[in-house]
Amino acid sequence: MNTNKTLSLAIMSGKGGVGKTNIVLNLGYALQQADNTAVLMDCDLGLANLDVLLGISPELNLRDLLQSDVDAADVLVPIESGFDMLPATSGVPELVEMDEDVQDILFKKLLTIAGRYDYLMLDLGAGISPTVLSLAALAQLRVVVITPEPTSLTDSYAMIKVLTTHYGIKDFLVVVNQALSAQEARQTFDRLAAACKNFLHIELQNLGFVHQDTTLVESVRRQTPLMKYAPNAPASKDIFSLARKIMRYRKGNSERIAERPILKKFQSE
Ligand SMILES: Nc1ncnc2c1ncn2[C@@H]1O[C@H](COP(=O)(O)OP(=O)(O)OP(=O)(O)O)[C@@H](O)[C@H]1O
Ligand SMILES: [Mg+2]
Known about the structure:
Layout: E1 7-12, H1 20-33, E2 38-42, H2 50-54, H3 62-67, H4 72-75, E3 77-80, E4 83-86, H5 93-96, H6 100-114, E5 119-123, H7 130-138, E6 141-146, H8 150-167, E7 173-179, H9 182-200, E8 205-211, H10 214-221, H11 226-229, H12 234-252, H13 254-259
Parallel strand pairs: 1-5, 1-6, 2-4, 2-5, 6-7, 7-8
Antiparallel strand pairs: 3-4
Helix pairs in contact: 1-12, 8-9
The structure holds adenosine-5'-triphosphate and magnesium ion.
């Protein structure tokens, strides 16, 4: 019998540069500080940048995992005790779009380590490429990051629409990033939720928001994750609050999670 404890989350966005990587990296810190274990995988093989945010140059990366005989455990890089990452690499065009065989290798290798952690987080590239969509479909939950910009709303709507109509996925959590106020965040969520309800007949879940915060920009420049650089900054507090909600979700859905595989391959009809 399957008794899985790992919650898998795909972090995605329609538009690029909205803050996915920063949010998911700092979410990992917040979860770790609350005594959870987490592994974060950089899935952006076109423009990887988790390693850059951490100021590290890992020896092995996703390319080695996919193209040679190394195990996922060999590629893991510890960030903090109980918080590891699987780095990617930039500028490998042949891997930006993974064919089914390569996806299969990734799937099998990832599963050898995923069960060790409470959370498996996939930091996806932006947009609606076939690889992004199939990685998003693998995870148990999808977290869509949006900003109040109209282009972010239209791009995320387009992405959700493709996942709903072609992959049958109907559950999405939304994080509004770079909001000037709670009110702006709420309005932004409501706008996207209304479009998804009216045209796609799905209900989005509001996970919360992160303030626009220059401290986050500074932390990027210093290549030090925000949670370490300024744990009391407004954006840090917001990310702690997102982590608490995700922990509540995992606790409240432990039976459901136990019955489901950590990653599930999408079977098209
Ligand atoms: N809450 C915030 N407040 C202020 N600036 C932010 C915030 N979140 C993100 N940014 C800015 O946006 C930039 C891009 O963030 P990040 O790299 O996390 O985005 P991304 O969605 O992962 O991008 P990509 O689509 O390229 O993967 C950051 O370097 C920072 O300058
Ligand atoms: Mg990113």
